[in-house]
Amino acid sequence: MTSWLTPELSLCGQVFREGTAEGETPGNICLGFDLGTTNMVLVALDEEGFPIGAVMEPSKASVRDGVVVDYLEAIRGMKVCLDRLSRGIPIDESIAVGAAAYPPGISSKTAKVCANVVEALGFECGGLYEEPSAAAEALGMADGVIVDIGGGSTGMSVVRDEKVIFSSDEPTGGTHMTLVLAGALGVDFDRAEEEKRKNRNRYAPLLKPVLEKMATIVRDELEGCPESDGLPVVLVGGGADIVGVEGVMESIIGRPVSMAPESLLVTPLGIARSLWRDRYGSK
Length: 283
Description:
InterPro entries: ATPase_NBD (IPR043129), EutJ (IPR013366), FtsA/MreB (IPR050696), PilM (IPR005883). This is Ethanolamine utilization protein EutJ family protein. By secondary structure, the chain is an alpha/beta fold. The chain has 2 domains: 7-136 and 264-279, Nucleotidyltransferase, domain 5 (2-Layer Sandwich); 141-263, ATPase, nucleotide binding domain (Nucleotidyltransferase, domain 5, 2-Layer Sandwich), CATH 3.30.420.40. The protein contains 9 helices and 12 strands. The protein has helices at 7-18, 71-86, 108-120, 131-139, 174-185, 189-198, 208-223, 245-253, 266-279; strands at residues 30-35, 39-45, 51-58, 63-64, 67-68, 97-102, 124-130, 144-149, 154-160, 163-170, 233-236, 257-259. The strands form 3 sheets. A 5-stranded mixed sheet has the order 3-2-1-6-7. Strands 10-9-8-11-12 form a 5-stranded mixed sheet, sandwiched between helices. A hairpin with a 5-residue loop joins strand 2 and strand 3 (51-58). Helix 2 (71-86) packs across helix 3, helix 4 packs across helix 9 and helix 5 (174-185) crosses helix 6 (189-198). The longest helix has 16 residues, at 71-86. The radius of gyration is 18 Å and the shape is globular. The two termini are 22 Å apart. The mean pLDDT is 89.
């Protein structure tokens, strides 16, 4: 089975955990702004297309189901990410370029708000990509099924010949798992979210009903898309980062399912990589 661990994804995970990459001051920086329901993630690439920094901040209710619902708070949250990133990487707004992404199925006007956040922070928004296309870029995927379990929704996309030929998005995600966990443990939402992240190897059995609902959504969508037959199913997104989720998904979907490495970073890296490819590079 394909590992999906590209050199760029591996390095992105390293700089996320260990801090900005050491080296010369970068020139043309590409920034990938990922406005998630639970987390905002910002990834920076150097002019060769390799990650040199990655940071994350809580979304604090500024984004719901992948859609910006509090514009000013979204700007504030991304400004915190940018400030943290800038401590290790000199970022010149006149040279650096940003990009954003949006979930499948929303209007172009709603998607444009993501680009507006980038521009409000002083950067040209050089790209606005559909999230599954960005994820496929980060994974180096030419053909496959991407299941993106975010905070507020689960998106499913079929990729053929490097193009998304089918996509859907349903409002069940990591937030719903946290609510179930909070009820089961008798704690508030924030404590349950913290517990879920710290003990990702513990709660798949408890969260099985929510995971089965997500898997049923994916299965039903795939049954209506014959072009997906025989394609690998790969899980991405912060909500997917629970040990054992693949087995639950496989039991419902009826085909092999694998977890992408660095699942939280796949989409933001893909945003930045898509921008870099369009601006400066090639695949």
